[in-house]
Design a protein that fits this description.
The complex is a heterodimer. By secondary structure, chain A is α/β, with parallel strands linked by helices. Chain A is built from 13 helices and 12 strands. Chain A has an 8-stranded mixed β-sheet with strand order 6-7-8-3-9-10-12-11, sandwiched between helices. Chain A has a 4-stranded antiparallel β-sheet with strand order 2-1-4-5, covered by helices on one side. In chain A, helix 5 packs parallel to helix 8 and helix 6 packs across helix 8. The longest helix of chain A has 18 residues. Chain A is globular, with a radius of gyration of 21 Å. In chain A, 47% of the residues are buried. By secondary structure, chain B is α/β, with parallel strands linked by helices. An 8-stranded mixed β-sheet of chain B has the order 6-7-8-3-9-10-12-11, with helices on both faces. In chain B, strands 2-1-4-5 form a 4-stranded antiparallel β-sheet. Chain B is globular. Classes of the chains: A alpha/beta, B alpha/beta. Chains A and B meet through helix 8, helix 9, helix 10, helix 11 and helix 12 of A and helix 9, helix 10, helix 11, helix 12 and helix 13 of B.
């Protein structure tokens, strides 16, 4: 029950416990579909997504608005509104999550699986002291007396490198900067010692220097605590710096997936290429024009055949417009969905 | 890369030398010689009151900022939340005007100008904001939104205005036939921002201020809009003040770049040299914070370049405002405020211990020169 039980308690699952599902990947998503019914329209927000996350791995889900990256991760947490129809399979340590009741999901949510969102000020209760909010989460997921929980809260605050942790416990959210509030959100997410942390654009709203600090913190915590991390971002730069594996999504589907170095060295999917080429780079001289593919993402409520990127793709052929390419492992460890994958090496 | 002043759209009042000027190469010198906009010692402060209405403090939002902007030039203005960059932009537009200092546009002092005269001057300076949906009235149609400045300044007949709106939509890459009757909610973020740009162009401004105008767009749409801004600048001979927090983004469009920290201008220089040899430790930290889209580049811990979080602009640190986070800070930094001084050609920095070539700099300081 001592507060310093935090780190060892979590180290346990790294050693490989002999519990059911210990051999399975931590998270296995298969043919996940999420539809939103809006009157006559059916929006296919996630359209047959599948991927796995190994223990203590960092996977980056990369995509633009409407790519399905956020919706699919909320499906893991059971955090979608009632208008969402979820089909397919989401297994966590072998346990199927799709179809679980709210009550069955609750111990997992915030316990084994935790999430950090983009806007910390919306996730924190403005009328409650920071300490009370962390203690509440600790006690919700473990049988711990209040004084011990308070000790653990202070320990968590130190873990996320908030200076003057003890004093901060007595502060309210508005007394902290955006970066500090996000550190508090991370502390709360870590309170129950999750095996999987989902960071949904967790640094997007922060300033550049703060973003770098928070990303370093998440990366460091992921390693020290042996958690798996799903990093949801629009920023391929962040994925390159911090992820083991990258999954690129477009129009509700996975379009390319590979270990990070492989993906950046051997981009196959023209959409990934387009994303990379559209990033302003410090190496570019001023006024260099960016390679920008035309058009915009497809309407997810419209019926479409073929590859969803075909209307914008510089390499699209008739085949692309007629049949959707399967998302499959085409080279060892490298999956993509494209009839005409780029064969060129990406400039290093 | 040079811009012909004579290419400027016919609606604009051209004063000064109509001859060819190569702005990009000449940098600061050209701006000093014949500036379109001249900003001197601009100070903007706000009083914070407690619940009882008593004065609780002063927000030092902008503290003595000076720079010039030459016609045809793009100046990038970089800074984080609380740096004062947006407050400065509003002070330039006199909305509200600065507490102290001077803002001259084509030689005319804007500070203290009467409403009517200010309105006349303001038609030459337009602004585009981050969120087009909050700046575009949701009940209006695209055609009306773009025509509004024309109506306000009584330009042309209804038929002429209609033709002008179609031409403007076409210019920003929106098919007039498809978009002219739409309302903002029927547009994507990128399309709405194009409408906001068309609106800003309607009355032939000389200067456009972009305040994080592409920052919330998706990567591919952002690239499209950035390319559009560059094309418009070249075609119409526009001058830009491009405000953003992303240094890589700013480099893409800027001839010169200014860096603000907590209300102060800390560095200003030609884009190439500022990125190749940043002089201020804060600029170094900003550059070190950009994640590289190359996984073989191991990110340097950003803690080497900057620590902690920005202090409050209500009670900024004495001396150099960056000293509380600076890895190079010494005693003098707390007691003496470093003035902005020219350390390389056209390249100024406000630092007692600038990151120059002869002083060993943190390893993260240098971006390899573009070859």
């Amino acid at each position: 029950m001592s507060a310093n039980g935090f780190l060892p308690a979590r180290a346990g699952h790294l050693a490989g416990e002999t519990r059911p599902g210990a051999d399975a990947p931590l998270l296995a998503i298969d043919d996940l579909r999420v539809d939103f019914h809006q009157g006559q329209r059916v929006v296919r927000a996630v359209d047959g997504l599948g991927y796995e996350v190994g223990r203590a791995r960092t996977v980056a889900l990369i995509g633009e608005s409407g790519s399905g990256k956020t919706v699919s991760s909320r499906a893991i947490m059971g955090l979608l509104p009632p208008t969402a129809h979820v089909r397919g399979s989401i297994r966590f340590e072998g346990q199927e999550l799709v179809g679980l009741s709210e009550q069955e999901l609750r111990p997992l949510r915030g316990g084994e699986i935790a999430m950090v969102f983009q806007d910390p000020s919306r996730s924190l209760n403005p009328t409650m002291r920071i300490g009370a909010q962390i203690v509440e989460t600790i006690r919700m997921h473990g049988d711990m007396a209040r004084p011990a929980a308070l000790d653990r809260a202070a320990e968590l605050m130190e873990l996320v490198r908030l200076p003057a942790a003890r004093e901060r416990l007595r502060q309210y959210p508005h007394q902290l900067s955006g970066g500090m509030r996000q550190r508090v959100m991370i502390a709360i997410a870590l309170a129950a010692g999750p095996k999987l942390l989902i960071a949904d654009e967790a640094t997007t709203a922060l300033d550049v220097t703060t973003q770098a600090q928070i990303m370093e913190l998440l990366h460091d915590l992921q390693r020290r605590l042996g958690m798996a991390l799903i990093m949801i971002s629009h920023d391929l730069g962040l994925a390159a710096s911090f992820a083991d594996e990258v999954l690129v999504m477009y129009a509700g589907r996975a379009v390319e997936q590979a270990p990070t170095r492989k993906l950046f060295a051997e981009v196959r999917m023209p959409y990934t290429r387009a994303l990379l080429d559209a990033i302003p780079r410090l190496e570019n001289p001023p006024h260099a024009s960016l390679a920008a593919v035309p058009g915009q993402p497809p309407d997810l409520a419209a019926e479409h055949v073929g590859c969803p990127f075909a209307p914008r793709c510089p390499d699209a052929s008739n085949r692309c417009r007629e049949a959707a390419p399967p998302f499959a492992e085409q080279e060892p460890g490298h999956l993509w969905a494209c009839w005409h994958p780029c064969g060129v090496q990406a400039p290093s | 890369m040079g811009v012909l002043a004579s290419l400027r759209s016919p609606g604009a009042v051209v004063t000064g030398d109509p001859n060819i000027r190569n702005v990009a190469g000449a940098g600061l010198a050209a701006a000093e010689r014949d500036p379109l906009l001249e900003v001197r010692d601009v100070v903007q402060e706000f009083t914070v009151r407690d619940r009882g209405g008593a004065k609780a403090g002063t927000v030092h939002a902008v503290s003595g900022v000076s720079f010039s902007l030459a016609a045809g030039e793009t100046l990038g203005l970089v800074g984080e939340t609380g740096s004062g960059k947006s407050t400065l932009a509003r002070a330039l537009l006199q909305a509200p005007g600065p507490k102290r200092g001077s803002v001259r546009f084509r030689g005319t002092e804007l500070v203290g100008l009467k409403r009517r005269q200010l309105q006349e001057a303001r038609r030459h300076i337009q602004m585009v904001f981050q969120d087009p949906f909050s700046s575009l009235d949701p009940t209006w149609r695209v055609g009306e939104l773009v025509a509004e400045p024309l109506v306000a300044f009584k330009v042309g007949t209804a038929a002429q205005r209609r033709r002008r709106v179609e031409e403007l939509l076409d210019r920003v890459g929106l098919d007039p036939a498809r978009y002219i009757d739409r309302r903002p909610r029927e547009l994507s973020g990128g399309q709405a921002q194009r409408v906001a740009i068309a609106r800003a162009l309607a009355i032939d401004p000389a200067l456009i201020i972009y305040d994080e105008a592409v920052s919330s767009l998706d990567v591919l749409i952002r690239a499209q809009v950035l390319n559009l801004l560059e094309r418009l600048r070249a075609e119409l001979g526009l001058t830009y003040l491009f405000i953003a927090h992303d240094l890589a983004l700013v480099k893409q469009v800027s001839d010169r770049v200014a860096v603000m920290y907590l209300g102060k201008l800390v560095e200003l220089g030609p884009a190439e040299s500022l990125y190749r040899e940043p002089l201020h430790p804060y600029t170094v930290a900003l550059l070190a914070s950009i994640p590289s889209p190359d996984p073989t580049v191991r990110p340097e811990p950003v803690g080497k370049a900057i620590r902690g979080e920005p202090p409050s602009p209500i009670d900024p640190p004495s001396g150099c405002r960056f000293r509380t986070r600076c890895p190079r800070a010494q005693d003098i930094c707390a007691t003496e405020e470093p003035p902005l001084r020219e350390l390389a050609e056209g390249h100024q920095a406000a630092c007692h211990f600038p990151v120059t070539t002869d002083v060993p700099a943190p390893a993260v300081a240098r971006e390899p020169a573009a070859s």
